[in-house]
Amino acid sequence: MDKSKKLKVLVVGDEWVHTKDLIHIAQDVLQGYDYELDSFDVIMDKPMSRDRSDDIGDDTVTEYCGHPQQLIDRIAGVQVLIVHTAPVTKQVIAAGKDLLAIGCCRSDAVNINIEAASARGIYFFNAPGRSVEPVSDLTIAFALLLGRNILKADQYVKAGRWAADINRDVPVWDEFVTFRGITFKNKKFGLVGLGKIGKRVAEKAKGIGLQVLVYDPFAKEEAFAGYTRITSLEELFTVCDFISIHVPPLPSNKGLISRKLFSLMKPTAYFINIARGEIIDENALIETLQQKKIAGAALDVYYTEPLPQESPLTSLDNVILTPHLAGQRKDLSEGSADILREMMQPFFQSNCLDTCFNKDKIK
Predict the structure, then answer these.
(1) Which of 18, 200, 305, 341 is catalytic?
(2) Which is one Pfam family of this protein (predicted)?
(3) Which of 276, 278, 282, 341 is catalytic?
């Protein structure tokens, strides 16, 4: 980048990653440059729903907040665009005739049309790994909660049933014994996906004594060191005591976890999904849980978000439900901004493309 040329910068934040933190990124990344900066906030309007009714003219852009017209109205003359969930569609990129670089504070930047940016020779930077620790933590927490029946036991105590059962003339242990959980040592923990998050989950699962089995046809052989590589989803679902999903929300992964796979699970097995709701056949999982064909499940993501109150999932006692919070952390805004800063600085300060996401697609 030529520091002698004045740049125009547009920063778009939201309630999760604040505009002020994104402005700090721009200030740090563009040290030594002459630039003017414009900014605004978008409203976070259910960014994780797969059933949005609005048509923004670009089906490749998903999980966004706001409307592309908000960017189009301000993009003229902008060379550097920094966003979190704002939708950077092909129309935004077409309107941004002077765009040189786009930064997005997400790992899976599904709100950016990266192909359109690459075709225009626009460098794109993301924030890889920002969710690795919180997502992997919740995955292991789910396994522990499920395997030890912790939530059911908690409800038993809070409802006073423990005291009532023990204080009878002849104590009643019938419900109490149902809380007896499994031991985790040498249980088979099956991972679908061995990306950054999958690798960290594998490390933590192995750390509590679980045998880790992994299905990922795209991972390099060295990534499986210390784990058992499984070459088919059918085998993984058949032999494992836990199944945990960690693949990206690509169109090719929609419906990857099918009714057939659920039917192969052991009746004592547990299913965990912290990836995306559309990756699984949700109706098939609901039927599997209703019929008690597996021991239980824990879900942080759903096909429709927020999860409708009328969903059968909300009435089941063998599933744990959380509101798509796996990637949330108390320092989400500052932490995400820090990662994006690290990714963008080499390009702007040293003309280095090593951290550029689409460097191989720009000629």
Answers:
(1) 305
(2) 2-Hacid_dh_C
(3) 276
More confident residue, 156 or 249: 156
Region 241-262: mean pLDDT is: 95
What is the mean pLDDT of the segment spanning 51-60? 77
pLDDT of residue 249: 84
Q: Do domains 7-130+330-361 and 132-321 have the same CATH topology?
A: yes
Give the pLDDT of residue 165.
Answer: 94
Of 272, 320, 263, 316, nearest to 293 (Cα)?
Answer: 263
- Topology of domain 7-130+330-361 in CATH is Rossmann fold (3.40.50)
User: Is 276 part of the annotated catalytic residue set?
Assistant: yes
Percent of the chain scoring above 90 in pLDDT: 89
**Domain-wise residue ranges, the chain:** 7-130+330-361, 132-321
- Please identify which of the residues 74, 106, 246, 324 carries the catalytic annotation: 324
> 132-321: which CATH architecture?
3-Layer(aba) Sandwich (3.40)
